[in-house]
Amino acid sequence: MRFQRFADRYIARLESGEQTIETLTKFLGSEGIEFANISAAGAVSHVRLGYWNAQSREYEFRDFDEQLEVVSFQGNSALKDDAPFLHLHGVFARRDFSVVAGHIKEARVHPTLEIWLRSERVPVRRAHDATSGLDLLDLPKWNA
Amino acid sequence: MRFQRFADRYIARLESGEQTIETLTKFLGSEGIEFANISAAGAVSHVRLGYWNAQSREYEFRDFDEQLEVVSFQGNSALKDDAPFLHLHGVFARRDFSVVAGHIKEARVHPTLEIWLRSERVPVRRAHDATSGLDLLDLPKWNA
Amino acid sequence: MRFQRFADRYIARLESGEQTIETLTKFLGSEGIEFANISAAGAVSHVRLGYWNAQSREYEFRDFDEQLEVVSFQGNSALKDDAPFLHLHGVFARRDFSVVAGHIKEARVHPTLEIWLRSERVPVRRAHDATSGLDLLDLPKWNA
Q: pTM surpassing 0.95?
């Protein structure tokens, strides 16, 4: 991984063979980033996508072992049990320009993934939500 | 809805059952936000998508009543008749990892939608464009 | 093209008939922007999409001559041979709400494309990579 920092923003590049979630999580911990908004463009040779089933309240995963363009990549990193935890969704384009898409469980970069990251100085945490079974952002309630 | 503010930026979370456009529009009005760039990731149980037909110059809408991952969500809020008006496009992933996509007319969140919002202090307005029949961003012309 | 600047950020609008890559590249040069993160939403009447073939290490292109919603648009501009060079990926929705997606070689706007641009004061350059045959972001290596 390579990166350049501009105050609270970063442009980073993952290199061929690097695992996106694993590498980014280590990087966020190393930089002490407690909240970041993230987007990216590039390509991968494998992605494991998830779909949250509202009936079972569990993720269903599928692996795509092919060269794919990363055509959308959005999400954030917040703290779960005091460590950075990524929540990223993506769209991946095939050779015929059709797509597969979902929650990004993991993705192996090839040959490059250009990541834009904006950090905040204020920590944001995730807390377990019993209804959904998910770890949701623990934010103050809006009193509309 | 829940949110945290960082100077001119916000991380917000819509909760299960909330209507995205309706709730965000109220929130932007309440915060007095006159322009914002917006992105998001999460999931919905319903979305009403639009396609602008260049021949008829009218939107065609279709409802999708199913649990979908929000895999891309981009756009902005500007002023139309002095009130916040959202222009958002999105991509939504199905259980088989295929997608439906278009202009977001409305979307019902389930179980969570994490929204990133960057506001500006300068108001940006929309003005009616007779040629397209749409309300376009009223910005100064670039003299190239 | 029309635009408004907020310090180091811009909201811009491309108008009907304008070529996205050509017009944006001229604009970036004119403003002296040496790095920018870019996103957009709107619609086009034509797009030329690319897929990078990992075997041949060359792009394969296809033209789509139809009215499409721009439902995702992400990437950046960095310097290649001292001039702005755009790297943008996108997802485009058809009248039936299905999509085509890939690397954006060129796109003709109709009737509007709303572009969000965040510039940085520090130049970022691309350098030729012999392994992939691509011009990758030339960033300092992270010593994990």
A: yes
